[in-house]
Amino acid sequence: MHLLLLLVLLESGSSWARSSSSSVRSFSSGRPPTELNAAFLSDVFQSGDEDDVMFLVRQVPGDGGCLFHALTACLDHKYTRAHNDFDALRRRMSNKLRLVAVELLKRDNDTLIMDNRETISSAQLLAVVAEHYNLTTVEYCEKMCKPNTWGGGPEIVALSNRMRRPIHVYELSGEEWSQSHRHGTKLGAHKLRVCAKFGSPAFDSKAPLHILCADGRFPDVGSIQAKKIGDHFLALFPCSRDGVVSMELLRDCLEDEEEREWWRGLGGLVESQDASQEKRANNVPFFLFGGGWGRGNKK
User: Fold this and answer.
1) Are 70 and 234 in contact (CB under 8 A)?
2) Where are the domains of the chain?
3) pTM assigned to the model
4) CA-atom Rg of the chain in angstroms
5) Could you give the CA distance from residue 235 to residue 249 in angstroms, rounded to a whole number?
6) What gap in Å lies between CA 223 and CA 214, rounded to an integer?
7) 270 neighbors 260 (Cβ within 8 angstroms)
8) What's the pLDDT tens digit per position in 148-172?
9) Residues 61/299, Cβ–Cβ less than 8 Å
10) Pair 115, 3: CB distance under 8 Å
């Protein structure tokens, strides 16, 4: 699939400016792991790709801002070392990410890296997606600045380039793991696959953010019945088969002072380097840090 078409599909998988989350369920019917925020689904989900990676899946509010909410959840965990409630502060950070993406798309001559070193100018990308919706570029940007407008491919590309960090997008493969493969594990039935690796390999010196674009009824819908093009984004966290969050995303936190200051400048919380180093020294699992284990429900 040509990458520009993929960008449009990621943008149009849902009602683009929906203001209601009625079609998106809050959580899996199962109980989440007791160590994690209750917004996490109870199962671990595995990619069927060659990397064979496992993920914990975190639900985010389905109010039209789910893309930016999912990325905020990933970045918030990266810098606070906790899976915090999606409260008013996280919603403000999510909206700021939205505005950062729009501002970058509005630039005339920025060269944006997409997938596999393919590039496009910010002006060309904005023109393509605006034309898809029969809007002018100004109208598109005005609509995208509204909190309930559904973001997608172009905004992912913009934020990946602003952070100079890969953002890997997964989708439901339409297949399920066999019972024998899942036996004795927390593995969920749905098999995931990579949809796009925006910013890779150009930005691979930094650990990627992972998000899932899925049917809003996931995981409570069968693979056959699930929509082929997702209409809801969720946050993914690499983990072990037992559901222990990987340190991959956190490995470059201390070294990436520029991104830390950018995130802090947007109003995001950042754990002190001294506290981070102490936790590393004590070898405490990162997902246990902090006390924000409340209900990250979709309001």
Assistant:
1) yes
2) 6-12+36-288
3) 0.82
4) 18
5) 13
6) 11
7) yes
8) 999 999 999 999 999 999 999 999 9
9) yes
10) yes
